[in-house]
């Protein structure tokens, strides 16, 4: 998939590994103003930076004045192995380490250095985002989870200091129950927003737009003035 206007492909080093990523600048009217912050995406369940759903949310955030970073948390070789075993997509420790690397990378990148930072995690990527938030409490200012599995972050939940928004589909009952349990383990400000009638992938008309609206409002509130 080719980069859209305002996007460019970058490579994030993690030791000997190289993670491929797409860095997107604010779009539309927001392009003429200083960025409001940078949002790092954590994909899950075998997804990557070309995820249609996350790219749609990222576009809405860029139109709201944010820089976005969408990265593949697995290398090409790891993705090939994971396609057969489905093991790495549930390795929250490994995925969390990769998200930490992306967070650290933004500090040295001219387009993002000094900007307040938020995380957007989907599915198992939400757990990885929360692990990263617990590891970088002075840097991560807000977290948004879309249809996430925050429960998989385990004991890291109690160490998260960033305000956290959990967005869940109203028809995604098992995941909603897991989110309701996990929110009780978060010591920072946290809220659950239920999108009525939406299933796990938010494929219903208007559901993903509602996710983007909620995420944009939460990030704007908590990154402003950070």
Secondary-structure blueprint:
Layout: E1 7-14, E2 17-24, E3 37-42, H1 52-63, E4 66-71, H2 76-85, H3 92-108, E5 117-122, H4 124-135, E6 140-146, E7 164-169, H5 173-183, E8 190-195, H6 207-223
Parallel strand pairs: 3-4, 3-5, 5-6, 6-7, 7-8
Antiparallel strand pairs: 1-2, 2-4
Task: Provide structural commentary.
The chain has 6 helices and 8 strands. With 226 residues, it is α/β, with parallel strands linked by helices. Helix 3 crosses helix 4. It has an 8-stranded mixed beta sheet with strand order 1-2-4-3-5-6-7-8, sandwiched between helices. The chain has one domain: Rossmann fold. Strand 7, helix 5 (173-183) and strand 8 (190-195) form a beta-alpha-beta unit. The mean pLDDT is 92. The protein starts with 6 loop residues before the first strand and ends with a helix. It is globular, with a radius of gyration of 16 Å. It has helices at residues 52-63, 76-85, 92-108, 124-135, 173-183, 207-223, and strands at 7-14, 17-24, 37-42, 66-71, 117-122, 140-146, 164-169, 190-195.
Shape: globular
- Class by alpha and beta content: alpha/beta
Low-confidence stretches: none
- What is the terminal-to-terminal distance? 34 Å
Helical residue percent?
25-40%
Instruction: Spell out the helices and strands N to C.
Output: EEEHEHHEHEEHEH
The overall average pLDDT, rounded, is: 92
Q: What's the number of helices?
A: 6
Task: Write the CATH homologous superfamily.
Answer: Alpha/Beta hydrolase fold, catalytic domain
Strand content: 15-25%
Report the count of strand segments: 8
